[in-house]
Each structure stands twice: as structure tokens, then as C-alpha cells.
Design brief:
seven-stranded mixed β-sheet; alpha/beta; binds zinc ion; 3 helices; single chain; 187 residues; Tetrahydropterin Synthase, Chain A
């Protein structure tokens, strides 16, 4: 069976060198839907607790929330960094607390201290799905991702080969030692 959850991401971006109004800096509330698939965990009666899917995803994806997302060749990037530097907020600020762990993949690099994500490709809804799948494919049994932003939306389906051992008491993934991080159940 499948279970799914959604999360919101508020971000600013633009389509550099795009012929249209999206070449100007603007913002969105994007909605990401993550579908995971597995057997229904006996007793717990869930595929995977949706709040845990959300938590796992949010750890990484909060880097996109209240962030500026720019393509690596966008001249706005050095300009913005220059302003942040001059203002003393490039390497973090006391109010900048909702930071995820920095990451670097083939498609995107997160700089949580300056709330920036730099992408290889233009950050369209399709681009976001590619980035998200890459970041979460080993952590969750993702079979479908959907991302909507304003009137734009994209969706992609996947096959998962992950074998994630789940706690028989609360359904969340066991850690590498076979222990449940939530209830301490020990396989
Ligand atoms: Zn846009
Ligand atoms: Zn447990």
C-alpha cells in the first residue's frame, strides 16, 4: 500500500535568461507531496507514519524554506552574496535558526547560513522534483513525488528497492543497530 504526506516550502527564485516575467525575482509557496510504498506494518497498521515521512524530508528540505534559490550561473548570486556579506549575514545570523544540514548533490548545493540553494538547472517544478528525489531516495521508499507552485505542477513515479526495517511498535525506521530511535525497541 502507499501512504502520502505533503509539506509547504516558501521560496524565492527566478528563471534566469527565460523570456517571460519569471525572469524577475519572485516568490512561491510550493507544495510537495511524497508518496511512499511498503507492506502495511502489522500491528502498527501503517505503511510508514506520515509525520515521520515529513520529519525525515523536512530535515533536508527546510533548506528550501524561506530560502532564495538561484541557478549557479545567475549573476544575481554574487550580487546577493555581496549584499549579505556587507550586511554581515552571509555566514549566519542569530535569527537564522531553522537551518537544515548543508548538502551538495549533482543538482543542488544548500548554504543554510545564508538561506541560499544554488542549482545546476533552472528551478522549475520539474527541477525541484529531480532535486528532492536525489536527496531523499535512500531515506524513504519514494514511489511518487508531486510538486506544485502556483499554477505549475509536476509529478514523477519511481520504483523503490529500499528495504527499510520498521519498528513493530511505532512503525518508524530502525537505526543501523536495529534499535528504534523513538521507543528504543531492539530487534
Ligand atoms: Zn516562479
Ligand atoms: Zn518504536
Amino acid at each position: 500500500m502507499r501512504s502520502f504526506t505533503t509539506l509547504d516550502l516558501q521560496y524565492a527564485h527566478r528563471f534566469y535568461e527565460f523570456e517571460g516575467e519569471a525572469q524577475y525575482l519572485h516568490g512561491h509557496t510550493g507544495v510537495l507531496t511524497i508518496e511512499v510504498e511498503d507492506t502495511v506494518n502489522m500491528g502498527v497498521n501503517m505503511v510508514f507514519p506520515c509525520n515521520e515521512v515529513k520529519k525525515t524530508a523536512w530535515e533536508v528540505l527546510k533548506n528550501f524554506d524561506h530560502a532564495l534559490i538561484l541557478r549557479e550561473d545567475d549573476p544575481l548570486l554574487p550580487a546577493i552574496l555581496g549584499v549579505y556579506e556587507a550586511q554581515g549575514i552571509k555566514n549566519g545570523a542569530i535569527q537564522n535558526t531553522m537551518k537544515g544540514e548543508a548538502f551538495k548533490t549533482e543538482l543542488a548545493t544548500a548554504y543554510p547560513d545564508s538561506r541560499l540553494v544554488v542549482t545546476k538547472e533552472t528551478m522549475t517544478v520539474e527541477g525541484m522534483i529531480k532535486i528532492v528525489y536525489d536527496l531523499l531516495k535512500d531515506k524513504l521508499n519514494i514511489v511518487k513525488l508531486t510538486f506544485t507552485s502556483g499554477v505549475n505542477g509536476a509529478t514523477e513515479e519511481y520504483k523503490t528497492t529500499n528495504k527499510i526495517a520498521r519498528c513493530p511498535l511505532c512503525g518508524i525506521a530502525l537505526n543501523e543497530n536495529g534499535v528504534c530511535p523513538k521507543c528504543r525497541y531492539n530487534a
